[in-house]
From TrEMBL:
Protein family according to the UniProt entry: Belongs to the complex I LYR family. SDHAF1 subfamily.
Residues annotated as domain Complex 1 LYR protein: 9-68
Name of the protein in its database record: Complex 1 LYR protein domain-containing protein
Location(s), subcellular: Mitochondrion matrix
Amino acid sequence: MPPMSGLQREVSALYRRALRMAARKDPAKRADWSTFVRYTFRTRAESVGPRDVGAIEYLMRQGRKQLELYEEESVRNCSVTSEMRAWDDAQRRRSPKDPQR
């Protein structure tokens, strides 16, 4: 696998930070936060092309601002739609060797 570009490293770091934030939330709500983070990243990644640097940078700025808000202790819950739950169930049923994952 070729080395990641600077932008790819930034996206990866933001994703890890978001997953760590989800892990710090109330244990009863962690699964919802994890689903929310994973779904949001995946759907937004699918909405832009890999070479559309401007759009990726915009989504990164937007994501950082949202994450700063979500990291506050006063934010305890997130809204997970039935579409998000269905997507999460489908992702969990896939085998780890599935190339589309």
